[in-house]
Here is the input.
Amino acid sequence: MHFLDFEKPIAELEGKIAELRHLSDSDGINIAEEVSRLQLRVDKDLRSAYAKLTPWQKTQVARHPDRPHALDYIRALIEDFMPLAGDRVFGEDSAVVGGLGRFQGRSVMVIGLEKGRDTETRIKHNFGMARPEGYRKARRLMELADKFGIPVITLVDTAGAYPGVDAEERGQAEAIARCIDCCLALRVPLISLIIGEGGSGGAIALATGNVVLMLEHAIYSVISPEGCASILWRDGEQAKTAAEALKLTAQDLERLGVIDGIIPEPLGGAHRATEAIFAAVRDTLEMHMNQLVRIDPGQLRARRRDKFLQMGRGLE
Here is the structure.
């Protein structure tokens, strides 16, 4: 397992547990009592560390390489998934994955931003940074879902839209704007879940939903802490300070009314107990889906638009 900087004491304890288990397996020595004692210390240290995470530490957890990605959630939660590709204008963008499937017996359209797991898949998916064709594909799939009355689920995990010259030449800003406009125009339920990193317009293009949820240790901001630090202080080392100022944690954003709910993660983060987080996400999505499908299509659209128009308005 990959350990973060603040988890070094925990890494040492888990290393000792692994050594003891190896000795027990190879020499037939019963050391279960010592392993149990060390495991209790690990759980205690994990609980203590994760109870007081700073915004920068939450950023590290949100970016953890072992954290479940969009395709992991699709495999775990969506039955009979049929991927759909291409924007019908330029080409295919693997940073955006999407298609039809069944969630708890209900037909849904699922669209996600996929970062990739290893070097090969990260390059294939461009580290989750979509180009214009990715957002145009997402818009095409949402319009298809709207035409047939199929609810939409989006899974957001990206540092932001791809900033390359080729993306700008093909209309990156326009593609993102039209994707947001499409989200606001849908007459079907749209549930958005930020599973890791929600960066800038690249994230909000798929997160303009009736219900916007975040995992407990996910982040969501207008810019990355590193990007903010480089602009304000001309110093990337100020990323920790920027993370504090950005109010990018799920807890901050729920308090500010930007998101609608937080899904608790297992002790130590989603990467430590993937089955548990899949179950929590499934139950939460099902609850909200059952509520939204009962609402009139026109009301769904009106409430979604009003929700985003009200954000940031002060009290008179």
Notes: The first helix runs from residue 8 to 27. The domain at 59-310 is CATH 3.90.226.10 (2-enoyl-CoA Hydratase; Chain A, domain 1).
